[in-house]
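Attaching the record inline, Q. Sequence:
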Amino acid sequence: MYKILLIEDEENIASFVRMELEYEGYKVEVCDDGVKGFEEALENDYNLILLDLMLPKLNGLEVCRRLRKVKNTPIIMLTARDSVMDKVSGLQIGADDYISKPFAIEELLARIEALLRRVNEIKQVSNKLKFKDIKIDLEARIVEQDNEEVVLTAKEYELLVQLLKNQNKVLSRDNLLENIWGYDYEAETNVVDVYIRHLRSKLKNDGYIQTIRGIGYVIR
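Structure, as predicted:
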């Protein structure tokens, strides 16, 4: 049974989402402020976290930022704030997905299922990838560079895996969106570019990932 942590301070929304998720077979824990949510996420293992942006005591962006220093648990942000900059901010600090309130529960369930499926598909592969000083253990989901572990978010990890599986092959932004996110993001969010920047910042040699102007990216 998948375990989901819901960090949401609006009682009506939290109760409704919890009820729907439990009906679908998920085990759900709810926290109503950012501090409690962060501590719960830190102390226990969850398959996925649903994280509200506007929270008392500690906002969702800060919860996500702190959590990403130590854990790669997939995170979907829930928020009433729908501006492009809010979305980009959430993605930049490590969120894997973003859904705006009010949302249809069917869409939320679909995004949860898609994210969990992609994570599990990668886990099921039992081999390794290597590129120069970068090594990925696909079974353990561990990335190392110069024999030091590189901590990546779930989406950063999937992006690096796609690039390494297609070394020397140019991958378009549309290709990466389809294979990693599995549905259409609003074009103005430039989600692929955001994650490429984050990935480059975490690798010791950011020149490995090259930009092919007007097309996409390649690692070579």
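The chain has a mean pLDDT of 86. The first strand starts at residue 3 and ends at 7.

More tomorrow.
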